[in-house]
UniProtKB/TrEMBL annotation:
Belongs to the ATPase A chain family. It comes from the Eukaryota. GO terms for molecular function: proton-transporting ATP synthase activity, rotational mechanism. F-type ATPases have 2 components, CF(1) - the catalytic core - and CF(0) - the membrane proton channel. CF(1) has five subunits: alpha(3), beta(3), gamma(1), delta(1), epsilon(1). CF(0) has four main subunits: a, b, b' and c. It comes from Dianthus longicalyx. This is ATP synthase subunit a, chloroplastic. InterPro entries: ATP_syn_F0_a_bact/chloroplast, ATP_synth_F0_asu, ATP_synth_F0_asu_AS, F0_ATP_A_sf. NCBIfam families: ATP_synt_6_or_A. It is found in: Membrane; Plastid, Chloroplast thylakoid membrane. Keywords: ATP synthesis, CF(0), Chloroplast, Hydrogen ion transport, Ion transport, Membrane, Plastid, Thylakoid, Transmembrane, Transmembrane helix, Transport. Key component of the proton channel; it plays a direct role in the translocation of protons across the membrane. GO terms for cellular component: chloroplast thylakoid membrane; plasma membrane; proton-transporting ATP synthase complex. The gene is atpI. It is a multi-pass membrane protein.
Length: 248
């Protein structure tokens, strides 16, 4: 148990240290004893407003035979359902909203960093950037995935779900516990690193060759941003499906 306590304390310390990681300048709100990344909340609210506005437009006047925008949104929904069903299995339906929200939020966040000129908006201190350009956002998404992962397993198997942690031997208990936390966190690092690297490359190229060269890199960034959103959502669904089926 001492090993397990040490492992959990190490994980908590690592999460606390990650929350203090800063790349570039940041804009903070001080609320009591808490320091909040104001720039992340501002850009996240913009992304949420875009998603809610798009959903409102899509369902405003639904047609029996979809056309135009409705046809596009139904295609997106069908795509998310296929991803969820492939990774989770027959019990995928309750998880479509969660997987869809992850995918759409990350996708729009990534694209906002590539298409929207956040930096032209002047702040008292710091600068705006895509929500997924901040490690606090990606780690929060990873922790949500972990919560969904455990909830799915407990809902399906009850207390017996925890039996997997002592398989094939109780000696592996600390390793099995850490594995369930580190898998989603690895997603957060991958997403944060790719989005940050993409924006840095574009900024450097624009400063060196401001006219033609950055354009292909920006298009490549849009492509990789979409792929990153798909990878995160797909692996989140795979982890949920794994928790419901158990380790093989």
């Amino acid at each position: 148990m001492n090993i397990l306590s040490y492992s959990i304390n190490t994980l908590k310390k690592g999460l606390y240290d990650m929350s203090g990681v800063e790349v570039g300048q940041h804009f903070y709100w001080q609320i009591g004893d808490f320091q909040i990344h104001g720039q992340v909340l501002i850009t996240s609210w913009v992304v949420i407003a875009i998603l809610l506005g798009s959903a409102a437009i899509a369902v405003r006047n639904p047609q029996t035979i979809p056309t135009g925008g409705q046809n596009f949104f139904e295609y997106v929904l069908e795509f998310i359902r296929d991803v969820s069903k492939t990774q989770i299995g027959d019990e995928y339906r309750p998880w479509v909203p969660f997987i869809g929200t992850l995918f759409l939020f990350i996708f729009v966040s990534n694209w906002s960093g590539a298409l929207f000129p956040w930096k032209i908006i002047q702040l008292p201190h710091g600068e705006l950037a895509a929500p997924t350009n901040d490690i606090n956002t990606t780690v929060a998404l990873a922790l949500l995935t972990s919560v969904a992962y455990f909830y799915a397993g407990l809902t399906k198997k009850g207390v017996g779900y925890f039996g997997k942690y002592i398989q094939p031997t109780p000696i592996l208990l600390p390793i099995n516990v850490l594995e369930d936390f580190t898998k989603p966190l690895s997603l957060s690092f991958r997403l944060f690193g790719n989005i940050l690297a993409d924006e840095l490359v574009v900024v450097v190229l624009v400063s060196l060759v401001p006219l033609v060269v950055p354009i292909p890199v920006m298009f490549l960034g849009l492509f990789t941003s979409g792929i990153q959103a798909l990878i995160f959502a797909t692996l989140a669904a795979a982890y949920i499906g794994e928790s419901m089926e158990g380790h093989h």
